[in-house]
Amino acid sequence: MRLYSSNTRGSIFMVLAMWAFAIEDMLIKAVANTVPTGVVLAIFGLGGMLIFMLLTWRRKEAIIHPAILSRPILLRAACEVTGRLFFILAITLTPLSSASTILQATPLVVVAGAALFFGEKVGFRRWCAVLVGFVGVLIVIRPGAGSFEPASLLAVIGMIGFAGRDLATRAAPSVLSNMQLGIYGFFIMIPTGLAMQMYTGSVVRIDLVASGLMTGAIVFGVIAYQCLTIAMRTGDVSVVAPFRYVRLLFAVFIGAVVFDEQLDMAMLLGGVIIVLSGCYTLVHNRWSIASEPKRDFV
Asked: Could you tell me which of 197, 254, 258, 255 has the C-alpha nearest to residue 40?
């Protein structure tokens, strides 16, 4: 009964996290139409950093830890910037629904990266699931087709950046808490955004509406991060993690209702393939661990 309760609680928090992420994406897409991307990135990073600094201070943890200069943390920072920057560009220049669909392939890239960089054993069937998931991504972006949008590749780069961040987080020193990682992850966006703004030199006009949208994006981003952390630390990961795909449902709904985006068969088909492939890798891993406890994967 205890396991069931923890799984239920973890699943609820995962759904809440994905809902908050979808709202964050919606607000950023809305504000990016009037505020330069560099400014959005810098303000978002500043707000998130300050909130996580407060949370870290309340936990009586060090704001600046020597471990921040370790290779995994520096790599994580680079991947964080890559993921955030290119995904913001993707949802600004392409439909939110299609960019979010491509983002769902992140767990598949993490599986491949864990095998390549951490030496984890990934069986033939899971590799097949990863490849099938990548086929789903190709169906969504449709390279070579008349309807191909080069800007959709921004979402692919962002997805790879987020996968690299997740892998680097796994290798991060255990002395660093999630709150501390949050500080450093959001901090790196500030100089990156300012550098972008200095390079482009675009005019900055932030009115009351834009300020409200940015504030909302920061708040929902932090809520999403916290709910995701609670979800992944509660219950069985193989039960909780598949609920991350509900983000796609929220994104499709927001895209259609708020931004009047049109869904086509290719995007729906690609999305279904990506989600099923991701769920299979998680469920198959669970079965493998249960049946052969001395091995990581079949």
From this structure: 197
